[in-house]
Amino acid sequence: MLLLFALVEPHLDKVMDEKEQENLSDVSIYVKGLDTEARSRYFDKLKYENGMKSLLDPYKIPTEKWSKDVTNWPSNEFGQIYISIKIQINY
């Protein structure tokens, strides 16, 4: 079963610069367990605005900040989700 969650507080998508990414005290246990190459790919996936900004490590966001209520989720069409998954698979 696929569970999707949305951030309850949108300000939690605070940007994380390269130095913050390198400081592993700011990342989850999951990220700490990744090898260097996998960690680099992980941080690349969090980047947006042509790699100029990065989202926080989603595994570090407290559980109570996420919502299972679909009315809080962004509105996405099936086609957008399909294309996003298709691009990631081909990446």
TrEMBL record:
It comes from the Eukaryota. This is Uncharacterized protein.
